């Protein structure tokens, strides 16, 4: 799949820094990051543990704020927004997929997804979201009755059910085996292609980068390089 047009950046970050204090020590998680994320692209943030990729993802999603710099979503300065405005931003624009599924054990797959549709402005029916991730036949099962890959796909269905503009995925295959991981990556790629949802995937696995339109390699809180894939690799061809 060819790269989408770069005419419209939906997210712009300028000179983003993030400093944490651990006891007497200051930890510089981000050291002046500039980036743009374009509507409809699939972007991979690649780097080892401690490179700053999770911190950057949290700022993109309004879960955290930068210590300095500017983080803008369209006309909105989410980096300077208060918690109430960032909560509204997450609710209206962002879907999250984490390494661990965070499903409610006492609810079925359908009910876990339906929780999100209750707070969304224009939700996708839970059944449709589950069908899109290949779980139409498993929607009335509880998490304990689902495999790890199926639970992760429920988490993706929950994220896309509110029709977010961007899907932020934090090591979505980190707890999965190879074959199951490929299936989850295919679901993310399909959501990006079929719904036009901008997708950002963070990973330490360099092989996964081939599925993206662009790859931002992070090291020591900086973007070390930006790579563009003229054609995205078919998920089935990935080997790690």
Number of domains: 1
Oligomer: single chain
Low-confidence stretches: none
Head-to-tail CA distance between termini: 21 Å
Q: Give the strand line-up of the largest sheet.
A: 6-7-8-3-9-10
**What is the CATH superfamily?**
P-loop containing nucleotide triphosphate hydrolases
Helix content: 25-40%
Order of helices and strands: EEEHEEHEHHHEHEEE
Number of helices: 6
> Which range does the strand content fall in?
25-35%
CATH top level label: Alpha Beta
Q: What fold name stands as the CATH topology? A: Rossmann fold
Name the CATH architecture: 3-Layer(aba) Sandwich
Largest sheet, if any? 6 strands, mixed
Beta strands, count: 10
User: Kindly state the mean pLDDT as a whole number?
Assistant: 93
Secondary-structure-based class equals alpha/beta
Radius of gyration: 17 Å
Anisotropy-based shape: globular
């Amino acid at each position: 799949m060819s790269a989408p047009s770069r005419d419209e950046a939906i997210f712009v970050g300028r000179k983003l820094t993030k400093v944490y204090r651990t006891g007497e020590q200051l930890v510089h998680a981000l050291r002046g990051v500039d980036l743009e994320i374009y509507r409809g692209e699939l972007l991979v943030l690649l780097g080892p543990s401690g490179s700053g990729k999770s911190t950057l993802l949290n700022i993109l999603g309004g879960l955290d704020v930068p210590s300095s710099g500017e983080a803008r979503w369209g006309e909105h300065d989410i980096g300077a927004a208060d918690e109430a405005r960032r909560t509204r931003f997450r609710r209206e624009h962002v879907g999250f997929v984490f390494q661990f599924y965070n499903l409610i054990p006492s609810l079925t797959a359908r009910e876990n997804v339906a929780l999100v549709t209750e707070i969304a402005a224009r939700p996708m029916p839970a059944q449709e979201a589950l069908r899109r991730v290949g779980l139409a036949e498993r929607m009335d099962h509880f998490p304990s009755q689902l495999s790890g890959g199926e639970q992760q796909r429920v988490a993706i269905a929950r994220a896309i059910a509110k029709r977010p503009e961007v899907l932020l995925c934090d090591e979505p295959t980190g707890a999965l085996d190879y074959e199951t991981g490929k299936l989850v990556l295919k679901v993310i790629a399909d959501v990006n292609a079929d719904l036009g949802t901008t997708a950002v995937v963070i990973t330490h696995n360099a092989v996964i980068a081939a599925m993206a339109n662009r790859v931002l390699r992070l090291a020591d809180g900086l973007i070390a390089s930006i790579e563009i894939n003229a054609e995205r690799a078919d998920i089935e061809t990935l080997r790690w």
